[in-house]
Design a protein that fits this description.
By secondary structure, the chain is an alpha+beta fold. It is 30% helix and 18% strand. It contains twelve helices and eleven strands. A seven-stranded mixed β-sheet has the order 3-6-7-11-10-9-8, with helices on both faces. A two-stranded parallel ribbon has the order 1-2. A two-stranded antiparallel sheet has the order 4-5. Strand 9 and strand 10 form a beta hairpin. Helix 1 crosses helix 2 and helix 5 packs across helix 11. 28% of the residues are buried.
Length: 384
């Protein structure tokens, strides 16, 4: 709360006093705090996503007992009062007593009691809806490990080993077991040749000596495209359509639109007649149907493994434009080593940001909230 060795500020001292009071008297009332400054500090500490206190409002009522043995109606007449009625009954209509009674006042501004029904976590429902939508379109789901070698995560995607994404601050590395030992030797040789001189790909490659030790280093999967590189080498057929809901990890600064671990919807479509128009249509579908965005745009971009490359953006009603993810057509240096025949369109889009628009969330961290009041205010997933 303050620098070690310095004196705490007045605000910090107030917070410490409030916390000590609550710790000594759990469940104490707000009025039991010694002063207005302490009570206002407690209110501030109960607000926001990382609130330290919870303030509950309790309603108290007082009841007056009438004279023993005297009915309420007689007591009202004796004291000059008028009986209040809350509803008309057949008896009051027959005997006419409703004419002299006073209607009970109703407060129409009061909110009715809230009936909360159980449901699945909204974000989980959204993910299930995305999966159901893609399966219904004929896509086959891809699966793969969270801990991945640099070979599948980057090298098989024609990302040069000198690329800035290889820096220690852009991926999480594994300490307990630093290197993978199961890389396919024939494919490794073809990928190395593509990097060094573009062999069989119609290019000159990157022109450096490929490091076979570095390619085996283990990292946490930083992009869902690692699944596409694996699938093309081991399972994919032409023509074919594949997707994955992949959890990825990057050491990023956490804020309203960024997280250090996140979900991507990854996908590829393989075919001899596939072209950019198909990719553009799929990106529009993701933006408008899955993210439920009112506006989406596709702009030129750059990735080492696609050409042409584009970036898709969606507009959040309150935050504004957000990047949905990248896409493009895989380069021959990516498709030739695994022996893929035909063109391949690929995309990797941020599901968390798409869900922010679809569920009406302003902060990406709320998607993983555990507080029931936050979850109950969140919209239901529109895709299930």
């Amino acid at each position: 709360l303050y620098v070690v060795g310095s004196r705490p500020s007045d605000a910090v001292r107030l917070q410490q006093a409030v916390l000590e009071e609550v710790a000594q008297h759990p469940g104490a009332s707000l009025s039991s705090l010694p002063g207005d400054a302490e009570r206002e500090t407690a209110r501030q500490m109960s607000r926001g996503r990382f609130a330290l206190l919870t303030i509950e409002t309790k309603e108290s009522r007082r009841w007056r007992v009438t004279t023993a043995g005297v009915p309420l109606r007689e007591d009202a007449h004796r004291t000059g009062g008028t009986e209040e009625i809350g509803e008309l009954t057949p008896e009051s209509l027959r005997d006419g007593s409703w004419k002299t009674a006073k209607p009970r006042a109703y407060n129409l501004s009061l909110q009715p009691p809230r009936i909360v029904a159980g449901r699945r976590h909204p974000y989980r429902s959204f993910l299930d809806g995305v999966r159901a939508k893609l399966v219904s379109l004929g896509f086959e789901e891809m699966h793969g490990p969270l801990v991945e070698s640099e070979f599948w995560n980057m090298d098989a995607l024609y990302m040069p080993q000198t690329h800035p994404a290889r820096a220690i601050h852009d991926v999480y590395r594994v300490e307990t077991r630093s290197h993978a030992g199961d890389l396919p030797a024939p494919l490794l040789g073809r990928v190395a040749a593509a990097h060094e001189r573009g062999e069989g790909c119609g290019s000159r490659g990157w022109g450096y000596a490929f490091d076979r030790d570095a390619t085996a280093r283990l990292v946490l999967r930083s992009q869902g495209t690692a699944l596409s590189s694996r699938w093309m080498a081991m399972h994919a057929k032409s023509p074919g359509k594949y997707f994955a809901i992949a959890r990825c990890f990057r050491p990023d600064v956490v804020d309203a639109t960024h997280a250090s671990d996140f979900y991507q919807v990854e996908g590829i479509v393989i075919g001899t007649e596939i072209h950019y128009g198909h990719l553009r249509g799929l990106l529009e579908m993701f933006g408008r149907e899955l993210a439920q965005a009112e506006a989406c745009e596709v702009r030129p971009g750059y990735f080492p493994f696609t050409e042409p490359s584009v970036e898709a953006f969606i507009r959040h009603p309150r935050i504004g434009w957000m990047e949905m993810g990248g896409a493009g057509l895989f380069r021959p240096e990516v498709t030739t080593p695994p022996g893929v025949k035909g063109q391949v369109i690929a995309w990797g889009l941020g599901l968390d940001r798409m869900a922010m628009v679809a569920l009406g969330v302003d902060d990406i961290r709320d998607l993983f909230a555990t507080r029931l009041d936050t979850l109950r205010k969140m919209r239901s997933a529109p895709l299930v």
